[in-house]
Write a structure and sequence with these properties.
It contains six helices and eleven strands. The protein is of the alpha/beta class. It has a single domain, classed as Vaccinia Virus protein VP39 (Rossmann fold). A seven-stranded mixed sheet has the order 7-6-5-8-9-11-10, with helices on both faces. A four-stranded antiparallel sheet has the order 1-2-3-4, with no helix packed on it. α1 runs parallel beside α2 and α4 crosses α5.
Length: 226
């Protein structure tokens, strides 16, 4: 078996972020010693976007937020599911990941960042959500979070910037009336489900794929606040 070759790396506040390749189309992204993404394991990422877009009552003109960028699978799935008249905002904290997706990683998903419907913001997605909720007050029809850290950390910290109660309330306020909040996480998280309910969401939990260990996709819709 061919060895992994480091194509690029950058030190980040969270650790050393690396892009590695084996052969022509076998990629992984690592953070220190943790594998964050593997180019052969993209089913959940694609299902995350597809299932969120499928719930939109009107896809024409839809305003969609996708974060983070990763290898581009979630973004590509969203673009494939959306019509020509829509807009997709990508929030990615690490600019090096954007550059990777413009380069060799882009070949995996037919270079989604070249799509005219896409705009990229190199910033924390929590800031983008805050702006949509309370500053510009321009809501999204779908907010799709495919972050390398799932929801479970927030069970020990209700001030978590993405999955704590106040963060979920902001996300609810950043959605249009019939909007969809879609989240990838490692597994079933009852604490997260309860917080979603407290923040005024109705929740559906799905496990894409069949057999073996499978990650979870949560689909939440704004409802009456409890």
């Amino acid at each position: 078996m061919k060895p992994w070759t480091t194509l690029d790396e950058q030190q980040t506040p969270d650790g050393l972020l690396q892009l590695l390749r084996r052969g022509k189309k076998d990629f992984i992204i690592k953070l220190d010693n943790q594998i964050l993404m593997n180019s052969h394991l993209s089913l959940t990422e694609q299902a995350l976007a597809e299932s969120a877009i499928a719930l939109l009552p009107n896809k024409v003109g839809a305003q969609v937020l996708v974060s983070g960028l990763g290898m581009g699978y979630t973004l590509r799935a969203a673009l494939n599911a959306l019509p020509g008249k829509c807009a997709v905002q990508v929030a990615e904290l690490n600019p090096i990941v954007v550059e990777w997706c413009k380069g060799e990683l882009g070949e995996l998903t037919d270079f989604p960042l070249r799509d005219k419907r896409v705009k990229v913001a190199v910033k924390d997605v929590s800031e983008v959500i805050m702006d949509a909720a309370y500053i510009s007050k321009k809501p999204f029809d779908a907010i799709i979070l495919d972050l390398y850290e799932g929801t479970t950390e927030a069970n020990r910290d209700d001030t978590h910037p993405f999955y704590g109660f106040e963060a979920l309330t902001r996300t609810r306020d950043a959605l249009s009336k019939n909007g969809v909040f879609a989240v990838w996480t490692e597994g079933e998280d009852l604490g997260f489900e309860r917080r979603l309910g407290r923040a005024g969401f109705t929740v559906e939990r799905t496990k894409p794929g069949k057999g073996g260990p499978r990650h979870v996709v949560y689909l939440a819709r704004p409802g009456k606040r409890k």
